[in-house]
Amino acid sequence: MVSSLLALPSTFSRLNLVQKSSIFIPFTFKALSLLKFHKQPRLRPFNYPLLHFPSSLNSPEAHFSTSRRPVSSKSFDVDLVVLGIETSCDDTAAAIVRGNGEILSQVVSSQADLLARYGGVAPKMAEEAHSQVIDQVVQDALDKASLTERELSAVAVTIGPGLSLCLRVGVQKARRVAGSFNLPIISVHHMEAHALVARLIEKELQFPFLALLISGGHNLLVLAHDLGHYTQLGTTIDDAIGEAFDKTAKWLGLDMRKSGGPAVEQLAQEGDAESVRFSIPMKQHKDCNFSYAGLKTQVKLAIASRNIDAKVPLSCASSLDRSSRADIAASFQRVAVLHLEERCERAVEWALKIEPSIKHLVVSGGVASNQYVRARLDQVVQKYSLQLVCPPPNLCTDNGVMIAWTGIENFRVGRYDPPPPANDPDDFMYDLRPRWPLGEEYAEGRSEARSLRRARVHPSLSSLVQASLQQQ
Ligand code: KG4
Ligand code: ZN
């Protein structure tokens, strides 16, 4: 056993290309448990299990290969307890999850009121709102789980993509908790978390799989080869589908307090989806990229031509006005989703060529809570005998569970940072990644229609993880 432990690779920072062993004291699982135990006696000591690696530990791929679940003994899974913190956009969320996927608590403080008032996320106001509630949200998560910080094994936190000002609030809190209680910290990619939470609810979901991630700020089709290894098949060239739902709701005068998407979905049920002939975006581009800016304009024009006044709330609209709004909602939703369907079909074909063993399409992110989206995409995957995996709605929209779970997946394979100091200096430079791709672009899928803003984009998560693996 001792020799196996000595043979373990030192942990490396999940994201920075620096092997921590070269800077810090070698930090094996064993060292970690001793360190924690020495400084901070725990009520129930967490036993870090032996990692089982293939015999040839010198080959790079022997380390941290994650296609199987490498560290997954029952006691490891039950004893591992991770706090996840999410503040990348307008929801302040925290959750505590066990290594076996048991959700011990989940708390979300939404800024929907601010969103309804200002019709969008204002970064400075969102930052202030996060700062006001972050301590309480984390405390509530601990209380609901009947735990104290001392009983945690690690803290996971979103470091990007998202709004810098907002990300900073979560990262500062995570570092304060981790530093004060001597806990390792795991940096999480928000979009990876949207995809991986599907593995918490569907235990059969193995890599590789295809994922469609649809939210307020992102429209991504990614092929998930392995943990930390993604190929981007498509992304949006302008707006994401969630943004189109939100603007449609605003212009139709709908109640935005639960965000625009659910309001449009509900009103669409009353409307005739064939009544307004919106055109499907990017039909002529045979790739997997998305565009919703043009559809937004079409909706705006349709609303103007029917003299709908957004200042008149839906509840006060005449029945003719109401049915006209419902027709627009239904027609918009139909075409917005037709665009998803068309892109997904192509992505499935591409994905099956690259990874013929894929069996699942994961659909996650806030818009994946939409029942119409789910039903239509289910029909797409059935054509290819694949299975659709959609997390439940409260795990599709931003939440702390997905961050904690992604932390767990990475912790299991040794991707975490050692505990930070109890107090960061005032001028500490936080590692925040507001614009951060998940994977490298699929070269054959490049579109001439792309007008993507490329300025100041951080290297992708996948390229960082792959480079780190090669350095092992
Ligand atoms: O993933 P998420 O919670 O936050 C981001 O990372 O953006 O997604 C929020 C987006 C919003 O645009 C919201 O309107 C949309 O998800 N959304 C929906 C539904 N529920 C939330 N869109 C359509 N139908 C829904 N039921
Ligand atoms: Zn999100």
UniProtKB/TrEMBL annotation:
Keywords: Acyltransferase, Metal-binding, Mitochondrion, Transferase, Transit peptide, tRNA processing. It is found in: Mitochondrion. It catalyses: L-threonylcarbamoyladenylate + adenosine(37) in tRNA = N(6)-L-threonylcarbamoyladenosine(37) in tRNA + AMP + H(+). One of its GO terms (cellular component) is mitochondrion. InterPro entries: ATPase_NBD (IPR043129), Gcp-like_dom (IPR000905), KAE1/TsaD (IPR017861), TsaD (IPR022450). Residues 102-405 form the Gcp-like domain. Its cofactor is a divalent metal cation. One of its GO terms (molecular function) is metal ion binding. The keyword Ribosomal protein does not apply. Its main location: mitochondrion. Transmembrane segments: none annotated. Pfam families: TsaD. Belongs to the KAE1 / TsaD family. HAMAP family: TsaD. NCBIfam families: gcp_kae1, T6A_TsaD_YgjD. Required for the formation of a threonylcarbamoyl group on adenosine at position 37 (t(6)A37) in mitochondrial tRNAs that read codons beginning with adenine. Probably involved in the transfer of the threonylcarbamoyl moiety of threonylcarbamoyl-AMP (TC-AMP) to the N6 group of A37. Involved in mitochondrial genome maintenance. Homodimer. This is Glycoprotease 1. It comes from Gossypium tomentosum (Hawaiian cotton). The gene is GCP1.
